[in-house]
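Morning!

As promised:
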Amino acid sequence: MANAVLEAVELECLRGERRLFRGLSFVAEPASLLWVVGANGTGKTSLLRILSTLLPPESGEVRWRGENARAQREAFRAELLYLGHAAAVKDDLTALENLDFALRQHGVDASERQVLDALEEFGLAGLEGLPVRALSQGQKRRVALARLALGQSKPLWVLDEPFNALDAVAVSLVRRRLAGQLERGGVVVLTSHQDVDLAGLRVQRLALDA
Amino acid sequence: MSGSLASMFVAVLRRDLLLALRRRSDVLTTFFFFIIVVSLFPLGVGPEPNTLRAIAPGVVWVAALLTSMLALSRLFAGDFADGTLEQLALAPQPLGILVLAKTLAHWLVTGLPLVLIAPVLGLQFDLPGGALWVMTTALLLGTPVLSLVGAVGAALTLGVRGASALLAILVLPLYVPVLIFGAGAASASVSGMSVAGYLSLLGAFLLIAAALSPWATAAAVRIALE
């Protein structure tokens, strides 16, 4: 199998009548992190949705391991961990049930022990049996991010604003998981408003402008 | 792959049933809506047994249609709002199968209870035993069709303003064939005619809907997510 390289070739994105970007090309090498920056409304989320095949680009293509990602959708999705703007966490389910379902959905086989450990790592020990509705915004975000702890089998992580609503401790937890992903030779694409300290990681910045 | 497909189907089904269990009030509301609508007719029309027997199948079926509508807007809206639908669409398994699991869960919590209570409600209309049995069988075949066809409409109206009214206008006309043959089965039984034709047609509707609707729904979900 070819190397885990994510390539964007001449991507163009239209939302409504507005052109967000055109002729956007980049290559994300294995063991590197692509940090998409730009003001509100410059198309960061749209770009991430295009990279994850949720949104078809107006023109251009996304290549994964050298092949068009949309043409080999199922194989591509099996290798992708996508975390959207919305947390994809159900208020009526407990943290444990949420994470367990999320992992099944990603095709990750994890024992209950591993799921509990992941929650504990993200500071949710003792809260796993509570409905997520009873948790704070930041804790809810942690429930969503806890899937990073079990995402080893996914070479490509696409994360939309993973640092939103997180405190310093959680930010460093996520950072450690990102470092682990790069060490395994995986690719990470993320957006962030905050200036997060990613020193020591192989970071490539991609600026979108209006 | 097929193993993971089956386990994913079960996971989605279980999660939706669990959610329904946590939000029992939603399920109970639609259930009581059905009971109340059906029970209003004998009160409004009067106690003349022949009239009641004649209108019973139609009343029960129209009430089932409206109840099914009432619950439909919940089918995808919650998952759409909190990002779960995005994740389902990105699962390696075909989205049509996952959508089918959601539709099945929806029918189990909103359709099946109607089927089970229908014979009791039929007694209010003085329906004879045979007709009660036929009506229940017809509902058992017909209500899943309502859920399957309704799922397409629910997916098409995702993220649209005034979705529930639009959904009713879109979906209710599509329910007409099921209404005609569903109510027709019990009416035929009341007047002593054969019901086999009606029931086979309902069964055929069910097979066609089960084969086609998940894929149409999945396509509509993908469009809504773009």
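Chain B has one domain: 2-225.

Hope this helps with the figure draft.
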